[in-house]
Amino acid sequence: MDFLAAVMEPFRWLVSVIMVAFHDGLGAAGMPPGDGWTWTLSIVGLVLVIRAALVPVFLAQVRAQRRMRLLQPDLKELQDKYKGRTDQASRQALAQEQMALYRKHGTNPFSACLPLLIQAPFFLALFQVLSGITSAARQDQGIGALGRDQVVQFDSSSILGAPLSASLLHGGGDPTAVAVLAVAMILVMIACQFLTQKLVTARTMAGQDLDSPLMRQQRILLYVLPLIFGVGGIFFPIGVLVYWTVSNLWTLGQQSLVSRRP
Prior knowledge:
mainly alpha; 2 strands; elongated; YidC_ALB_C; transport; chaperone
C-alpha cells in the first residue's frame, strides 16, 4: 500500500461507514435497499454529517471575514502609500506589509477556502469509493465498509436512468441520461460556487480599491473555483456529483444567512 492509499484509508472507511449507516437506516424505515434513491439519500446524509461537523470551522471563517472587514481602512492606507509605485521592490514591500497586517489581525484573504480544504480528504475518499464500485462488483468483493452485496446493489442502482457509479467522461448506463443529469448537477455546482464566492467577496472586500492586489486575488478565486468544479465534474461519478452539489447548496445557504447579518 503506497503512502497516499495509507493516508486515505481511514477517510474511505469513515465515508463508507456513514453511508452504510444511513442506507441501513433508510432500509429499516421501508425504503428498498437496492433503490438508487436510497443510496442517493445515503450520500445526502453523508453531506449533512460532514457539513454539520464543519460548522465550527465555518464560524471561524465568519470571524476571519469580519476581521477582514475591520482591517480595510488599514489596507486602504497601505495601498495609498504605494499607489503609482510599480517597481519590483515596491510591489514586494507592499505584499510583505499586507501579510504582516493580516498576521496582526489573525486573518488572510483565503480564509474562505478553509472549509473547502478540510472537506478535500472526505471528498477524495468518496470519489475513490464510488469510482471503485464497478471494479469491486466485478471482482465480487467489498470496498471500505460496503460489503459485497452492497457493492453489487450500488453498482446496479440508478436515479433518473443514470447509474450512480457512471460518469460523464467514462460513461456507464444510458449515455443520454448520464449526460443530462451530470451536466445539470455540474451547472448547479458552478452556480452555487460562483454565488458563494461573490457573497464572500462582497462581504469581506467592501470599500477595497478595485485595482488592489487583494481584489485581483478575490476576482481570480471568483472565476477559478467554479471553473475547477466545472472541469472536475466531467470525471466525477454521479454519486460524487450528488455529494458535491448538495454540499455546495449547503455552503451557499450558510453564506447567504451570514451575508444578511451586519
